[in-house]
């Protein structure tokens, strides 16, 4: 999976951290998640502890969007067999299916290709009725991939606002409030299109707190936000918007445009939500990998947010406390965290939150007993073609500090980390359950993971 593992895992500690990262991503892979949570037996669809009688439906349709939506749908098609009638998925990682149509879109910025797939999804939902079972897939990356601008807004204008939002430093839930109100499909609007069909919304969660209304901007979930909220967010972050966008939001605020459907709306009467995977899936698998190697592992939090560079300082302060006072954990120990940090960019940059996390940590790290790895589980960190990075006390030496600090200040983390052979490359992983951070703290005796570790194994990609 980590394609450059052999070259970047040049110490036992780094290789161990990379093993934990791989374990987390593997556990969150759609094929594994579907196998663990979805099955069909005697014409009954089982999703976790819920049952759906397939004989009650004339049509079974699969629709959705996200980085992992293609692979989730492929696994669902295998489970359903000839029960499946039709389907359409928008993803940046399309796979081959017999019945479900795959539309290649783009992420993190939308493209016109996304619109073609969304139009097909809408057509399928418009044809649904009370005897239709809609299996919806909502996954990380779906907010960009599920793009159909509100009437009155051009596609290029939507893309420009999206780019400004992503550079603003706003948390994803606020970004998606704006996205919902510039869209014809987000914020529960696909649930309205599907009504009165039964909808089984399968959510692969990539947001803090597993908020189904934020994942893919909640196309099948109730929305409690408003046009007024969207305007307030744009103003607070001083986000430039084209006149057409401002006009739509102002018309919505005045009540001239229909609001996104809220919880009390009838369109949600037959919508059932299932979070089939999340950041905790990856965290628990990474913890299991560490403990199987004889190293205690602790989950610090699955809900880390804020500026990536500041989050790194906090994580490093915990690691230093472990070494100095043996609190709150006894070394050797692995500290794990998930969530989604951000990077506020004023001009331009090349990198992503996980690389910036690692570069900030490396600048402040001077203890050889600490190794830090951080990745975006979808394999794409920010605007770079890498998943994240792995660092130790040798990544930024005394002579490197001026250059490292300049790269961090300019948000050019990829350039510096690549020069130090510290970027983690996976390519598209087929999943997206947010960020995964692994911090391995040895004790002063230099305890290492048990000998049956990956030190004697080749990386899966080889």
Cα end-to-end separation: 8 Å
What is the CA-based Rg, rounded?
22 Å
The residue fraction in helices comes out at: 25-40%
Provide a count of the helices. 16
Class from helix and strand fractions:
alpha/beta
What characterizes the major β-sheet? 6 strands, parallel
Output mean pLDDT: 94
| CATH architectural group of the largest domain | 3-Layer(aba) Sandwich
CATH class of the largest domain: Alpha Beta
Strand order of the largest sheet: 6-5-4-7-8-9
Quaternary structure annotation: single chain
Could you say which overall geometry the principal axes of the C-alpha atoms support?
globular
How many β strands by DSSP?
Answer: 15
Which segments are poorly predicted (pLDDT under 50) over 5 or more consecutive residues?
451-462
CATH homologous superfamily descriptor of the largest domain: Glycerate kinase, MOFRL-like N-terminal domain
The proportion of strand residues reads 15-25%
What fold name goes in the CATH topology slot of the largest domain?
Answer: Rossmann fold
List the domain count as a whole number. 2
Organism: Haloferax profundi
Protein name: Hydroxypyruvate reductase
GO molecular function: glycerate kinase activity
